[in-house]
Amino acid sequence: MNPTEGYDISRAYNLATGSQLPERASESVPHSGEEFITNPAKGKRPAAFTKECVLSPELAAFLGKERMTRSDVVSSMWRTIREKCLIDPNQKQFAICDEQLFKVIGKKRFKVFGMMKYLKSHIRDPSKA
């Protein structure tokens, strides 16, 4: 006999937590960002990571846009590095620069997880640009 046979997981969850187990996983996840706002009257300013920034001409040429948020820059860099097959085949945590990426990074080979330290000089705040 299987040890879990006849075992009602939802009943055990109800007894352990005092609440009901959601029927579907999507019920436990909020459907819109409105549930996460604690106090909309405070008017919090946007985080630096989500603020649109001006890119240097070298980085703009590599990514194809002149303005992006920092998170979009990192996502686009990852996507472009993968599309151009610039990941080092021997050590996949490194990327090997082509001519265009070399103008941005300044090194022939760099650790991809640390790319932001090379990109920070190419991303400027629009109010200070």
CATH topology of the largest domain: MDM2
The 3D shape can be described as flat
Alpha-carbon distance between the termini? 71 Å
Integer average pLDDT: 79
Low-confidence stretches: 25-36
Helical percentage: 25-40%
Radius of gyration: 23 Å
Number of separate helices: 5
* CATH architecture annotation name of the largest domain: Orthogonal Bundle
Can you tell me the CATH superfamily of the largest domain? Answer: SWIB/MDM2 domain
Number of individual domains = 2
The SSE string, one letter per element, is HEHEHEHEHE
Largest sheet geometry: 3 strands, antiparallel
Q: Could you say which structural class the secondary elements and strand pairing correspond to?
A: alpha+beta
Strand line-up across the major sheet: 2-1-5
Oligomeric grouping of the chains: single chain
CATH class category label of the largest domain: Mainly Alpha
Number of separate strands: 5
Bin the strand percentage.
5-15%
